Amino acid sequence: MSNVFVLDHPLIQHKITHIRQTETGTKDFRDLVDEVAGLMAYEITRDLPLTEIEIETPVAKMKSKVLSGKKIGIVPILRAGLGMVDGVLRHIPAAKVGHVGLYRDPETLKPVEYYFKMPNDISERELIVVDPMLATGGSAADAIDSLKKRGARRIKFVCLIAAPEGVKYLQEKHPDVDIYLAQIDEKLNEKGYIVPGLGDAGDRLFGTK
Ligand code: URA
After folding, report:
1. Would you give the DSSP letter of residue 77?
2. Binding site members
């Protein structure tokens, strides 16, 4: 699992416990997903390059580091991925945001893109693809296929909860993509839900059923 990073900081674990609970309502669920995404942004951006500049403190001149301005794109997979965008953006406000929406045609089983809008320079950006749940791995792999077809070269995938099946599938399909997650659950059930999971992340974020 060399390209899988489990971000199991106590603050993240605490918040994930509340996210999972049935009694957590829409507002709290949304706020917690946003907070966890923000905490995860910390680790995901650990390898951002820095450059040294000359500054002056009230006491002395010194050299100090700032981000070297690497271009970043955040790509939520519609619709649940939207819940993670603001949390990540809070830490990297200069990032651009692209959106991808797709479903599997039930007859051909081929992915159908119903929405795809990216910044026009995705080949120069590091893309952070976000979706709270990595279940079968099908939509994550298909979304990443779509991005690579348009020239994306550097991609990270970030989710809150993953099923082992989804991690394996995504690793097989895209071994070059690092996967960041907070917790790996037991399995998928026959309906494709992660067990124990948290239910349908999109419905819980947006208060739909
Ligand atoms: N998507 C969800 O929102 N929940 C799951 O358990 C699996 C996929």
Report:
1. B
2. 79, 104, 131-139, 194, 199-201
